[in-house]
Amino acid sequence: MGVVRQQIYLQTTVILSVLATTNGRYLSLMRMNSIRELQNYRNFHQFSD
Q1: Which tens digit of pLDDT belongs to each residue from 9-41?
Q2: What is the chain's alpha carbon radius of gyration, rounded to the nearest angstrom?
Q3: Superkingdom of this entry's organism (predicted)?
Q4: DSSP structure class, residue 49
Q5: What is residue 35's predicted lDDT score, i.e. its pLDDT?
Q6: How far apart are CA 24 and CA 18, in angstroms?
Q7: Which residues of 10-20 are buried (b: 16+ CB within 10 A; e: fewer)?
Q8: Kind plus residue range of the DSSP H or E element containing 8
Q9: DSSP 31-45
């Protein structure tokens, strides 16, 4: 019983860590995209003024 619980615990920690890293990567990508879009928006409005 204890061994099974330990294996489940290990699997969940691995899954959680993988999810955390992929989430972090996704968030950093989103942040980079939003920064790029903000810069494009600023440049566009400088030309239109």
Answers
A1: 999 999 999 988 888 888 888 888 888 888 888
A2: 21
A3: Eukaryota
A4: -
A5: 87
A6: 10
A7: eeeeeeeeeee
A8: helix 2-48
A9: HHHHHHHHHHHHHHH
